[in-house]
Amino acid sequence: MLERLDYTKSEINRVAWENLLSASGLRPDPPYTAVYGVFRDDQLVATGARDGARIKCVAVRHDYRGGTVFHELLSGMIMEALDEGINRLFLYTTPDAVQAFEQLGFRVLARIDNGISFMERGTPTIDDYTRRLREQLDRYQEKNGVTSDPVESIVMNANPFTKGHRALIEDALSRSGRLHLFILSEDASSLPADTRRTLVMEGTADLAGIIYHPTDSYIISRASFPSYFLKKESETTETQARLDAVLFRDRIAPALGITHRTVGDETDDPVTALYNDCLAREFKDSLNLTVMPRVQAEDGKSISASRVRQLLLEGKLDEIAPLVPSTTFQYFKSPEGQELVRSWAK
After folding, report:
1. Among candidate residues 79, 101, 123, the one where a domain is terminated
2. How far from each other are the two terminal CA atoms of the chain, in whole angstroms?
3. Band of residue 231 on the pLDDT scale cut at 50, 70, 90
4. What span, in angstroms and rounded, lies between the C-alpha atoms of 251 and 217?
5. What is the pLDDT of residues 188-227, one digit of tens each?
6. How confident is residue 31, by pLDDT bands cut at 50, 70 and 90?
7. Which of 122, 142, 193, 206 has its CA 20 to 30 A from that of 96?
8. Which of 219, 235, 216 is closest to 227 using CA atoms?
9. SS (H, E, C) 187-236
10. Where is the domain boundary, 100, 123, 146?
11. How confident is the model at residue 43 (pLDDT cuts 50, 70, 90)?
12. What is the CATH number of the domain that holds 236?
């Protein structure tokens, strides 16, 4: 029988849980919405965890593998997620477990050469997502016509939208009359998703050729890359970047006829630098990747969203003016923008 496992209140449960993960070559990977366990004769024989729509830390004791325990564990976790209104689940897994998850309705979305796979179950699916993208393109082309030019793409969080983001967009449009601009959908940033999207659209309203898309759970999302079966943090980051690149290359780009992707150079953040390197590797034979140098402000420092946020936290509103489009500046001058900044300090 599946039980919620409150290992934080029971030393016995905590030790049993950690030992089971370790015996399966896994490690704890917080945060968790819930941790689950299956017991036989008061012994923990299987465990799994869920972080929102992401399943992780799935382990079954060696003498119970190949039986019904795995199905009992996952079926219970799926049903509880459904009861909470979560109709779509994601997970990352190693090659030996793919078939077992497929038997429970999971589908492989992307796989890299070491066999690690990104899987989903439920609805809406990635096919539904790419269909919506195509419908956006069709509506745009009905109004603006079809282009035979190279087709550019950018993925950005824009937290908030800066002149650096604007320059990246202008650079991509210099090579193409069509730009698919993906703005991260999740509310996992300092600015709400709707606000970020609005600032991007307002800050580029004078530019032609842009189609704005959400990323859903398929581009740099929290349905993301767990580290529990990987030994090094750098390996985790590389796996995330490669799977993200493969999913974009094989499923999203073909749906929209995308031939190019533009990213910003990164010298200060090693994670982003590694991410760009992995994109270049996975795109090598199919998509053109352009890495644009960082835009410098008048003081010689790079323009970045993190710099803008820090200035806002320090109450230096006027100092962000050279770093952001006027629409972003006006937002942060507004009562709504001021209230948002105050909420960051709480």
Report:
1. 123
2. 42
3. very low
4. 13
5. 789 999 999 999 999 999 999 999 999 999 988 766 443 3
6. confident
7. 122
8. 235
9. CCCCCCHHHHHHHHHHHCCCCCCEEEEECCCCCCCCCCCCCCCCCCHHHH
10. 123
11. very high
12. 3.40.50.620
Same domain flag for 183 and 55: no
12 and 81 fall within a common domain: yes
Q: Give yes or no: residues 281 and 333 share one domain.
A: yes
DSSP run (H or E) holding 127: helix 126-144
Six token digits for residue 55: 């399943």
Matching residue, tokens 């029988």? 1
Q: For residue range 265-307, what is the model confidence (pLDDT) as tens digits? A: 987 777 788 889 999 999 998 999 999 999 999 888 899 999 9
Residues 116 and 145 in one domain: no
pLDDT digits (tens, 9 = 90+) for 118-139: 999 999 999 999 999 999 999 9
Mean pLDDT of 233-249: 83
Say how far apart CA 75 and CA 58 lie, in whole Å.
12
Are 49 and 134 in the same domain?
no
Phi-psi region of 216 (alpha: psi -120 to 50; beta: other; left: phi over 0): left
Q: How many CA atoms lie within 13 A of 285 on its CB side?
A: 2
| pTM of the predicted model as reported, rounded to 2 decimal places | 0.92
Question: Whole-angstrom Cα distance, residue 264 to residue 266?
Answer: 6
Q: Which two tokens stand for residue 255?
A: 């749906």
- Mean pLDDT for the chain? 91
Q: Which long-range contacts (CB under 8 A, 24 or more apart) does 126-133 make?
A: 126/218, 126/247, 126/251, 129/216, 129/218, 130/251, 130/252, 130/255, 133/180, 133/213, 133/252, 133/255, 133/256
User: What's 158's DSSP letter?
Assistant: -
Range of the domain at 25: 2-123
**292-294-300 Cα angle (round to 5):** 150
242 contacts 282 by C-beta, under 8 angstroms: yes
Is the CB of residue 283 less than 8 Å from the CB of residue 249? yes
